[in-house]
Amino acid sequence: MDPKFKNTIVAQAGETFTIEADYFGKPLPELRWLKDGEEINKSTPRTDVKNTLTHTTLTIRDCTRVDGGHFVLSLTNVDGTTSVPVNVKVLDRPGSPDGPLKVKAVSGEKCNLHWNAPLNDGGASVSHYIVEKRETSRVTWTGVDALVEALSCKAAKLTPGREYIFRVCAVNKFGVGEFLESEPFIAQNPFQTPSAPSTPKASATTEDSVMLTWERPESDGGSEIDGYVLEKRDKDGVRWTKCNKRRLNDLRYRCTGLTEGRYYQFRVSAENTAGVGAPSEASDYIKVCHTSYPPGPPTNLKVTDHSRSTVSLSWSKSIYDGGAPITGFVVEMKEAADDEWITCTANTEETKDTIKGLRQNAEYNFRVRATNANGVGEPVDLPGSVVAADRLEHPEVELDPALRKLVSVRACSTLCLNVAIKGRPEPEVQWSKEGGPLSERAQTEVTGSSTLLMIENVNRNDTGKYVLTVSNCKGSKSAFINVRVLDTPSAPTNLQVKDVRRDSVFISWEAPLIDGGAVISHYAVEKREEARKVFTSVCSNCTRNLYKIDNLQEGCFYYFRVLAVNEFGSGQAAETVEPVKVSEVPLPPGKITQSDVTSDSVQLSWEKPDHDGGSKITCYIVEMQAKGHDKWRTCSESKTLETVINGLTKGMEYFFRVSAVNEKGRSEPKLLLTPVTVKDTSAQPVIDLLSTTFSVKAGNDLRIDVPFKGAPQPTVVWKKDGNILKETCRVNVCTSVMSSQIIIKDATKIDVGLYQITVTNSAGTASAEIHVNVFEKPGQPCDFTVEEVSADFVALIWQPPSDGGSPILGYHIECKDQSSILWTKLNRGLVTENRFKVTSIEEGLIYEFRVYAENIVGAGPRSNASEPVAARDPCDPPHNLTVSNITNSSVSLSWEKPQYDGGAKITSFIVERKELPDSCWLKCNFTNLLDTFLEVTGLTEGEEYDFRVLAKNAAELFSAPSETTGPVTVQHDVEPPKIIVEDKFRQVLVVKVGDLLRIDADISGRPNPTVLWSKNSRAIGTKGRVEITATKTHTSLIIRESVRKDSGQYILTLQSSAGTASVAITCRVLDRPGPPAGPLQASGLTAEKLTLSWGPPHETGGAEIMHYIVEKFEFRKSTEKVWAVGTHNTDKTELKVTGLTSGVEYVFVVRSINKVGISEASPETDPFAAVDREEEPRFDISTDMKKTLHVKEGGAFTFTVPFTGKPVPCVTWEKADVDLRIRGLINTTNSVTSITVEKVTRDDTGKYIVKLQNGVGNASLTLSVRVFHVPQVTSTTRICCSLKNSTRRGSSE
């Protein structure tokens, strides 16, 4: 089967997937396809099974998610059964959620829905759920929530008394699944609405509001009261309207937004889960009114500007508005000499004004009054007088701090320089650029307070210093701004090409004049051939101003250019104007040879220069110098490599030198090292032969070149094997002045032999012998055999053939499938040894192989093909052979199957024994043994034996023997069970929820003990998340995706006839804690703080609660979502929350934290409005304070009275027919008021009344004083009352 089927096959719904496999067996096995343990129904139209003798295919078309699962291909014949599993996952819409769909917490308007996740998620996780509802009397479904991520949903807006059905479906990335429906149910409350509260009572009336209070209803209807609804009705109206937008939780409420002077009635209703109850009786009509006064004077009146005809004033609003909003201001003026004030601005709502139409140089006084609905208030006068005259100011330029620094702007963007200016009269503005005129793209704008210079699409040329000059009649002022345009650099300068060589040039340059506002980091050097249009990079990171360009093509014409690079990119390029040819003068000629000298001439020859400089050599110049002379003169110009110089003087010595010339010039001269003496010379022939042996491949040409010299010119004779060499169409001899050459075309074996050359002149004879060898291809390798075979490789071996006259370089191996006619080469390189291991084979196929040799001539003939061999592995030996039990006549053995069966099913095992020390191996079983254990009986007590096991597969191949057991003595062997665990299991084993819980233990004992696992006295087996494994030496308990209930004590027990052993392991699974216990309690609520308390969580998650997180959320609007405001941490179950905003409603939740993580949030609190609690004013005094105070005439007394109330009440002191503000000294704070009367007389006897009043109510306290006349004695009495528990005391002075 293809290896891809070992992994899970994934298919999209609607696609077709195919599972195929090759199979074999003798006799032909019976084939079955199973799915999830049941045989596949082949009659369905979407399922197709096709079988051949060796291949089977299962095809399922238009697959759906039900087609996914565990497929098994089962093969069965008389020899056994084998099966191959294949897992298929079909990606489809999810199935319906797992039911039932439960409806809980039903009321008249809402309910809660609960369901379970789908059993089949369609191969992709469920992203969300869709919940819908319908009335049983209707057929259409309406949406409840189209994006539910949890397994529950709250459905609201139900109609009480109606019968409903809900349904829910799952959604994954492949679509919407089937729906799960609930049972019908009726939306009705299990309780009634509350009874009516008491009639609302009014207090603390203002011009647009009234404070109302009421009592709770007698009955709450069986459900806790959630809040109250307050309604109002105008005296002239008939409709009741709500006063509160949000539910009221308190028994009082200030109704605002009322119309002053109107009469209103109020009523209140209670609300619980069942709804709003009956309203209370309506209150009496209440008139909305409030007393107010004209406002106080404005403050901070001052002159902001003046001219010859205007004066500008500004002021601040009045501190006291008289109890009514300030509607405007009245501005009045008069000339300094006049007494009558004139209104110049009757009503302005702003706190500033400009008075126009004044006489130039006249002196004026000004004042301002505030107005409200009750009239015009007191004025505030402007200190001093104002003269109506123009104000002159020197021009000023105010540069922004950013403009005082270097202004940087990117190229192609817009430069904007906005500068604030001032001056009286308005100054003239001029912009300029230092060192040159402004750009034609520059635009300027001028207003009364600023000027703007704007240049669009700036470039590097706009860099510089910009000067702003402002001037008027009082003078002038200048300022400059440095601007840097961040751009790429300009082109480098002074680009020069130097030192041109045949394959390289040197170029140099200087830095650009403009660096683009950034440091030049490096240069880019490029080149292009004259025939091409595109430059190619030579160096992209050159840091110097000099670079050598190598690897140029000799003789070609090139252009070169250089670009400077800064952080903004590559700048403009500097390019060579003319193309540069890459060439140079040639090298000097090679070796100069003097070939012949006469009485008046000499013949010279030379070799070409090693390099022509990249340009063709046009000629050679030969110069000579007579010995004893200093001057060289040209004696010959030749286009060939030799020349004859005539006209020489016999007996003279001459020096010669030769120079090569090309279009670049003349090379350095090459000097003939020895001088030439002009005379007749004769010399015996000399043969200069470098090698005496020549080899050639058969069929190739052979060229033998023999140099010689002699004077006069010698003759040449060639012989082969002692006979004169005959020239034919294949064999030719060419002789020149200095060498003789034999050429043999298409050499064969007949050309092998001894060749002799003889050179003769009048001065003598010289000869040389040359051996010629012709190589052929090697012969055919012999004794080619297969040495070893497996499923992965085949080892080959052979004997070398004849080498054909040249050593064998290596061998080539070929193979083919027995059913094919095409041979395939196996080795890429030559095989140098006489053996080869073939690894590129396919298991089960039958192969043939052949080999051939290769030498310097070529490849020889192929060997005969090897015998066909099948690529199959030998079976591995059984392993882990152990002795499980010993008695006085038997030994029980067990082993494990071979790790590899050789490609065929294991059909039997053979157990062998050997009696120690010198016996042979004997077979123990004479029947077909398929089990991996055997009890060997009939043994002799007290004797020692050794055992081993062999395996046999269906291909009739035997494995190698297993490792032996070692000496085993036949006698009774008993060992008590024993358990060994690691130290970490002797302590509490701690894991996190969702992690793998694993307990391992090593076990031993004879006979093999029985392994039992238990928890809390209940046995545990492999099921679901729990997996138990046990071998003879080891056992393990594995729990996947552990949960909290997996905590506890696990006991491992071993039992055998030798005894019992057990060990206990304690495990603890840690989880995130549960939410804090509720409900959350709030106390001490004010406009800025409250105290929040809660209970510890019922479930700690197995770990200590480290601290709590308190989160507060602010309600913006009732129709908007909740917006998070902040969090607080605490390690206690109480927190004082501060920093609240007055008038804002808050909701709080609390989370628990242990070392595993954060819990879910606790249930939300009801919204709390951050407002101060209103309290009626009351006195906080002791009973002694109410007693009559006795004071001596002429003395003094003080009453100090503490009080409370929110808002802080107004305090007044009264006494019949006496203004205590004049008679006494009154001092009042937010919590204490006091009055002190000095030099008392009889008239100060009487009752002193202190009154408290705020928006909630009022209170009064009467204090009595009695004055005694005591002649000539002065006394002072002070009365202090601070707290309820304080005492009243008096002192005399």
UniProtKB/TrEMBL annotation:
Q: Which UniProt keywords apply?
A: Immunoglobulin domain, Repeat
Record-annotated Ig-like domain positions? 3-89, 395-484, 685-773, 977-1066, 1177-1266
User: Which Pfam families does the record associate with it?
Assistant: fn3, I-set
Keyword Repeat in annotation? yes
InterPro entries from the UniProt entry: FN3_dom (IPR003961), FN3_sf (IPR036116), Ig-like_dom (IPR007110), Ig-like_dom_sf (IPR036179), Ig-like_fold (IPR013783), Ig_I-set (IPR013098), Ig_sub (IPR003599), Ig_sub2 (IPR003598)
Q: Which PROSITE patterns match?
A: FN3, IG_LIKE
Q: Which Gene3D superfamilies match?
A: Immunoglobulins (2.60.40.10)
Q: Where is the Fibronectin type-III domain?
A: 97-190, 196-291, 297-391, 491-585, 588-681, 780-874, 877-973, 1076-1173
Name of the protein in question = Titin
Give the organism the record lists: Hippocampus comes
